[in-house]
Design goal:
Elements: H1 6-17, H2 23-28, E1 37-41, H3 50-64, E2 68-72, H4 79-87, E3 94-99, H5 100-108, E4 120-135, H6 143-150, E5 157-161, H7 167-179, E6 183-187, H8 191-199, E7 205-209, H9 210-218, E8 223-228, E9 253-261, H10 266-280, H11 283-291, E10 295-300, H12 301-321
Parallel strand pairs: 1-2, 1-3, 5-6, 5-7
Antiparallel strand pairs: 3-9, 4-7, 4-8, 4-9, 4-10
Helix pairs in contact: 3-10, 5-12
Length: 327
């Protein structure tokens, strides 16, 4: 992989520079919200982000002493919602839940009306949904057989994604290149039609969200041959990780996290970070989110910032190597 450019290194420094305070120090300095706290979701209501916030909403309200309200600001490939936070007062009362697209947009959409890596501070990396590499049953019985079939000359395989520039598109392109597969990307507008076409063998493989593949894999409609996760998962314990199979650098998953204005005072950020982490780590919260297919991370802002930069760098390399463009 190429080294970070000087501007990207400066962005990393800015993203990680603000100090994190312990919850005790934050409370000792007396910061508390003085009005409702907004959590902006940059998608329409009913999406996959909603339950992550709704499940902890009451706990956050109790912890912070002010109502925590959800505000949907869809449009512009998440730019509209993110710009709303960029324009908000830097007082800790506005934050936005972001996903992998935040890191991809740094390269895909260089003319955004804000600087994603310097205008915001990471707060909490909340959850992740691993992606499973699934293949049509006629393709192969296991990962080794899939690689052998996918490297053969000829017309090659078609692999699907949820759209150009989505996390499973970029993960698929990264894997295709790393594994030297003979394959062509076919974008879809979301998961349902892509899954239907995989079952119908119009696609031969794709990375798909873990909850979406469990039932069709059990029914034999597709075969799970690898998972892009730090460890094997209890839902598919027999499926090895990409790292086990020799591809530790492949990134294909769907994570959610919170960011806010970069110049929000450190005591405010520390209080908010502590409230989120405490709520996400409650056993009943983890249980409900895991039932929905989320793995709870509850990682503090410093770690989240490192992850944002790791994904940003990887996505930039994939996007440029494959000349990926969005309208």
């Amino acid at each position: 992989m190429t080294a970070l450019a000087p501007t990207r290194r400066a962005a990393l420094a800015a993203l990680l520079a603000a100090p994190a305070l312990s919850p005790g120090r934050a409370r000792a300095q007396g910061w508390a919200p003085s009005q409702p706290v907004r959590v902006i979701i940059p998608f329409t209501p009913g999406g996959t982000m909603d339950p992550v916030v709704r499940i902890v909403q009451n706990l956050l309200t109790q912890s912070l002493g002010q109502p925590v309200v959800i505000e949907h600001r869809p449009g512009g490939a998440t730019v509209i919602g993110t710009q709303e936070v960029a324009r908000s007062a830097p007082d800790g009362h506005s934050m936005i839940m972001i996903a992998n697209s935040f890191a991809a947009n740094v390269t895909l959409r260089p003319s955004m009306p804000y600087k994603p890596l310097t205008d915001f501070a990471p707060l909490v990396m909340a959850t992740v949904v691993p992606h499973v590499l699934v293949v049509h049953p006629s393709v192969a019985r296991d990962f080794a057989g899939f690689l052998e079939a996918g490297r053969k000359p000829g017309p090659g395989f078609a692999f699907g994604s949820y759209g150009i520039g989505t996390s499973n598109h970029l993960g698929g392109e990264q894997f295709r290149e790393a594994a030297k597969l003979n394959a062509t990307h076919v974008p879809y507008n979301g998961a349902p039609q892509a899954m239907t076409d995989l079952i119908g063998n119009r696609l031969q493989f794709m990375f798909a969200n873990l909850p979406d593949v469990i039932q069709p894999a059990q029914l034999g409609q597709m075969r799970a041959v690898a998972i892009s996760a730090e460890a094997r998962v209890k839902e598919l314990p027999e499926v090895p990780t990409m790292a086990e199979l020799g591809f530790p650098l492949v990134l294909s998953d769907s994570w959610f996290g919170l960011i806010l204005r970069a110049n929000v005072p450190a005591p405010a950020r520390a209080r908010l970070e502590a409230a989120w982490i405490e709520a996400l780590n409650r056993p009943e919260v983890k249980g409900r989110l895991e039932e929905l297919g989320f793995a709870v991370l509850a990682r503090p802002g410093a770690q989240f910032g490192e992850e944002i930069l790791r994904y940003t760098k990887t996505y930039a390399e994939v996007i440029r190597a494959n000349n990926i463009k969005v309208e």
